[in-house]
């Protein structure tokens, strides 16, 4: 019997579309793929999905086996560590077979401790909210100061279009939507007034602050941010004394404040915006604690009286250090906790405000990640944090701030007999071509040979000053158990090595991001961790830009690429001021209306630098309703590459046509199925199929 003919990839018709860029006429024959409502576009995307399904049909049993394997390691019915907030303990729980968490609370016991015997109150069952929907995103939730009303937001589209609701916790009655396109919100102290921020309906820029009186009032516009470089957000200080509204661009921040007990008052500017000055603020006992980069690249902390917060009245609280990035400050009545980063590792220091003495929070491993775990109570004497490493599952600790004693409250259970002693994690340093030392976080199963034969999975992001932490992953175990080494490259563009690490990977230094990644890959090959034909790479969003750039620059260096929701059509996007990833991002990528920036950006834009040559195997994944990187970027990228690539390696586009967001599916089982497929595909490229 003759074998079935190999599926043929779909062909996106080329249609003339010209643009004038700095006097140059540019033709983009796949520009028409931006027409979201065009049936021809939908038909083409469906054809791409059908082609991907046909090309990966043989992968289905492996993908299903991986899904069962990954799911089998997860405790499906589980409970988060309850956290005290006022008279109640709040927690989330999951139930086997249900896609979403259930948000709950219990009243504190007579001694103030958590008491399982008190009645559980379900605040939100996200599974009930999701009935009849293919997507549900929870934007946030907040209980009023009097504990009676829940404020929350949801998105049913994947496009981050959140509607705001209240729920009366006594009657269970839910309001009709109070507002749409809500991006942040907070309560005033009277539990009657609330403040929320909305985005505009074109660029999705958070630009308007509203006040609402729940007793019959209509939303009142309090502030509108006119400058397109800035986005705003609203919240409250740790002690809940002040409402804060922050306006931020990439390089300049400004804060306004209002007493939470006086919601009808006027927000005051703490410090007027000043180009290049980034600052944020907390409050404790009549004093503002200001984290500022004025004269301090990696920030310092100063204090000032609430009445006179200007620099003339600043007192240094934490001085600037060249090798330590101050990431945040959490004030308590009797203590202060500062979160810092040093050589790519998270650190906490605690001060006893009565004595002024500081103590460091110690961690047991050399490569790890630690994050503040949420300690809402201002009067708390224990600081909660989450700790994990690439071999230690997430663990929740309470640290007694007086003694420094740490108490493990819960370590995420990994079913199936996971034994961390069978794995190893370490920190390597790759030398970039300009001499910069790039940290690499590595994890592998013990016994892996260092002779170049091991497959290796290299991941990176490298943008916006977002550092990638060395965290634990249950799905990643399926790679490690099959002999694959997993590496995170902490390349420039993030903040792992401080603010300068970000500066050196943005604007006219963006090429450092790409060459750091290439140099890291070459280092891993040279040191015999892997070889070129065993090296697979992955990045998403701005990390997808990274994937496109390095694949154009060094297609010979990688065996396979997974590019998720990739920002690859840099020039068309950054020349279109109506898109979300444009005007506000000029300070990250550059303004292409300026000729020098245009030339620099065009030199690395993945879509514009595709060429007639051999490429690695490539899997591109995205969502039709992605609000951050529009679906047409990866669609155009794949369509153009099909006409140029000279190799026989697979080039696949997998696009979620049902509602899904920038992060993919919203349900935990659906998301895990997608992860299993991507893992199966990557493993197959290096010859692992079971």
Percentage of residues in helical conformation: 10-25%
Low-confidence stretches: none
How far do the termini sit from each other?
A: 27 Å
Content-based structural category: alpha+beta
Query: How would you state the average pLDDT, rounded?
Result: 96
Number of helices: 12
Shape: globular
- Give the number of DSSP strands: 38
Main β-sheet, spatial strand arrangement? 31-32-34-33-35-36-37-38
Largest sheet: 8 strands, mixed
**What is the quaternary state of this protein?**
single chain
Radius of gyration: 26 Å
Instruction: Estimate what percentage of residues fall within beta strands.
Output: 25-35%
Describe this structure in words.
- With 690 residues, the chain is of the alpha+beta class.
- It is 17% helix and 32% strand.
- It contains twelve helices and 38 strands.
- The strands form nine sheets. The protein has an eight-stranded mixed beta sheet with strand order 31-32-34-33-35-36-37-38, sandwiched between helices. Strands 3, 4, 5, 6 and 7 form a five-stranded antiparallel beta sheet that branches.
- Strand 16 (242-248) and strand 17 form a beta hairpin.
- Helix 2 (60-72) packs across helix 12 (668-685).
- The model has no long low-confidence stretch (mean pLDDT 96).
């Amino acid at each position: 019997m003759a074998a079935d003919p190999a599926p043929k990839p779909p062909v996106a018709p080329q249609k003339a579309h010209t643009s004038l860029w700095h006097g140059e006429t540019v033709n983009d024959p796949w520009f028409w793929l931006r027409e979201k409502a065009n049936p021809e576009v939908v038909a083409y995307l469906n054809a791409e999905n059908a082609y991907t399904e046909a090309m990966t049909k043989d992968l289905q049993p492996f993908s299903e086996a991986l899904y069962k394997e990954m799911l089998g390691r997860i405790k499906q019915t589980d409970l988060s560590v309850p956290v005290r907030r006022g008279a109640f303990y709040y927690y989330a729980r999951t139930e086997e077979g249900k896609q979403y968490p259930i948000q709950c609370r219990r009243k504190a016991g007579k001694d103030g401790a958590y008491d399982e015997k008190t009645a559980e109150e379900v605040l939100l069952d996200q599974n009930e909210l999701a009935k009849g929907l293919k997507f549900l995103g929870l934007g946030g939730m907040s209980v009023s100061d009097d504990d009676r009303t829940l404020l929350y937001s949801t998105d049913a589209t994947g496009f981050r279009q959140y509607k705001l609701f209240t729920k009366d916790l006594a009657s269970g009655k839910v309001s009709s939507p109070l507002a749409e396109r809500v991006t942040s919100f907070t309560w005033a102290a009277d539990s009657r007034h609330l403040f929320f921020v909305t985005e505009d309906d074109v660029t999705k820029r958070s630009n308007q602050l509203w006040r609402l009186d729940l007793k019959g009032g209509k939303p009142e516009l309090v502030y509108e941010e006119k400058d397109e470089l800035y986005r705003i957000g609203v919240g409250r200080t740790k002690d809940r004394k002040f409402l804060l509204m922050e306006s931020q661009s990439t390089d300049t921040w400004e804060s306004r404040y209002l007493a939470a007990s006086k919601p009808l008052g006027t927000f005051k500017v703490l410090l007027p915006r000043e180009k290049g000055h980034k600052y944020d603020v907390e409050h404790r006992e009549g004093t503002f604690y200001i984290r500022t980069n004025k004269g301090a690249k990696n920030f310092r902390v100063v204090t000032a009286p609430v009445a006179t917060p200007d620099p003339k009245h600043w007192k240094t609280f934490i001085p600037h250090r060249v090798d330590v990035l101050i990431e945040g400050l959490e004030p308590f009545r009797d203590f202060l906790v500062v979160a810092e980063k040093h050589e790519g590792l998270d650190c906490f220091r605690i001060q006893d405000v009565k004595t002024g003495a500081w103590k460091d929070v110690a961690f047991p491993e050399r490569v790890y990640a630690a994050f503040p775990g949420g300690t809402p109570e201002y009067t708390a004497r224990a600081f909660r944090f989450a700790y994990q490493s690439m071999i230690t599952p997430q663990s929740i600790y309470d640290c007694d701030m007086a003694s420094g004693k740490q108490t493990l409250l819960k370590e995420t259970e990994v079913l199936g007999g996971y034994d961390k002693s069978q794995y190893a994690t370490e920190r390597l340093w790759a030398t970039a071509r300009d001499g910069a030392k790039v940290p690499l976080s590595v994890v592998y199963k013990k016994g892996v040979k260092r002779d170049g034969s091991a497959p290796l999975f290299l991941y990176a992001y490298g943008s916006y000053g977002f550092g990638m932490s060395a965290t634990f992953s249950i799905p990643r175990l399926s790679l490690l158990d099959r002999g694959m080494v997993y590496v995170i490259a902490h390349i420039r563009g993030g903040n792992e090595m401080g603010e300068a690490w970000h500066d050196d990977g943005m604007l006219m230094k963006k090429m450092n991001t790409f060459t750091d990644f290439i140099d890291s890959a070459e280092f891993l090959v040279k040191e015999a961790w892997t070889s070129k034909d065993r090296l697979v790479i992955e990045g998403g969003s701005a990390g997808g830009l990274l994937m496109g750039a390095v694949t154009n620059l060094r297609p010979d260096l990688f065996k396979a690429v997974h590019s998720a929701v990739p920002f690859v059509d840099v020039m068309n996007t950054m020349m279109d001021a109506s898109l979300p990833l444009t005007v506000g991002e000029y300070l990250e990528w550059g303004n292409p209306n300026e000729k020098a920036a245009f030339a620099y950006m065009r030199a690395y834009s993945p879509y514009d630098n595709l060429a007639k040559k051999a490429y690695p195997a490539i899997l591109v994944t995205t969502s039709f309703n992605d609000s951050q990187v529009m679906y047409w970027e990866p669609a155009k990228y794949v369509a153009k590459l099909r006409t140029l690539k000279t190799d026989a390696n697979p080039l696949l586009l997998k696009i979620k046509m049902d509602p899904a967001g920038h992060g993919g599916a919203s349900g935990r089982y659906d998301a895990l199925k997608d992860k299993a497929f991507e893992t199966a595909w990557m493993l197959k490229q290096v010859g692992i199929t079971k």
